[in-house]
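Hi W.,

Here's what went into the run:
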Amino acid sequence: MSNAKASAAPLPAVPYLKLPPDGEPYLEGQKCGPCGAIFLGERQVCSKCGAKGALEATRLANRGKLHVYSIVHRSFPGIEVPYISAIVDLEGGGTVKGNLINIEPDPEKIAFGMPVEVVYQDALGRRDKEGNAYIAYFFQPAS
Amino acid sequence: MTDAFVVGIDMIKFGRFPERTVPDIGAESALLALDDCGLKIQDMQALYCGNLGQASAMVGQRILQEIGQTGMPVVNCANACATGATAFREAWMSVKAGVYDLVLAVGVEQMGKGLLGGVGGGKGIPREGLLGSGTMPAVFAEAGQEHANKYGTTFEQFAKVSVKNHHHSTLNAKAMYQIETPLDVVMNAEMIAYPNTKLMCSVNVDGSAAAVIASEKKARELGLMARAVKVSASALTSDPWQERDLVMPDVNTCTRRARDKAFEMAGVGAEDIDLVELHDCFATAEILHYENLGLCDEGEAGRLIDEGETALGGRIPVNVSGGLLSKGHPLGATGIANIYEVSTHLRGEAGKRQVEGAKVGMTHVIGLGSACGIHILEKVAA
Ligand SMILES: [Zn+2]
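Here's what came out:
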């Protein structure tokens, strides 16, 4: 595989993960002015209230609460297990799914509602066809 | 508006048929359903065909190429795991609307083994296991965990669903499996996505089911009322906006809305239902749907399974066919196979697993994305 086309800086794993050249990474939501619904990714109309052209980019919080999770022990070929798939409600709005890390994958150790923080790290060494490296977001227990 | 009746219905024994084709598997149940009411494909005015895996490949027409090319209109449809129910509903609607008075609905799927869900698109890098999981066992585990969070539902209670449905399937020769799975076996089976073990995940199988639907006038004219089953409600919903639904499909709200519509249309309530075939794609899901379908009060689903109320012989038997967990889940066929099961009980023809005195039954499927289809079926008073 040739690295000739790879860009110098890592790329975001998803479009709603922003990597400002001179700032901290963050997650971006699209917030509807009239109703306050928050979406990940752009759309033409708010699918909650129907407002047109009323979505604005908003910076989502780096802290939240674990809503629910599953501990995945079997996945597709080549995907390392186990991992904790977590649904997190961020402070100030927005719900995001990601891996919960730095905690044992054991239901005894994981509590619904536990505070978590968003951290930004290399995407488990995964590279695309051009050899680009990626940054992803993860959740970890917070105090 | 005329009433619509199932006059012929059947399914093939679910299994794995890698050497067969999708139209061939579909044709088999179409012929069985026609035989069930003594009619021929030439008597049908339209075909509504549900299939997911070959959704762009004209499966309905290819079935007719095997059993009779009459030139009738064919509609092919795909609606995730609600595909079969959607095909049935389109057929029902055409009769209700008075456009046709005798139509055929077929649901068919050929699946192969393996995990369902997405590994991620072609661009960039795979997201599975990086940004949580999109596998179906994990998605439905997370949905079940909401119930655990709210009401303290335990791994053991979820597992009991699987014990019950596997037991039911020992009484159903058309189910994929006929094996008992005691609680310790279910709980100690390979963990796929906590709290769903392998025995708490539906079985990917090949299968088909088909139904002949007639208007009241036609059913009487043909002398088919004695075994006819009235379709007293058909409801289909999609998922309304929910706070978390971009990352966590909501299987509850669309089910509750379809339930309300169906009860209203049929003029019945949960207390009138004698048996239910609901979408137990994972053991966690069945627990959620006890409350979603109104079979018990909020937070009571754990008690319902603990006390055996949803087992054959209990207050409200659920998935006496063995359910998707053990009968198997050929995606496009499931919605019609459920209607076959309930119809068989209403006809008093379910043999060892017969729900005694069944007069009203309900079927429910959920296609993630989402689509919920509910049908209410009634025994025709003699
Ligand atoms: Zn809005």
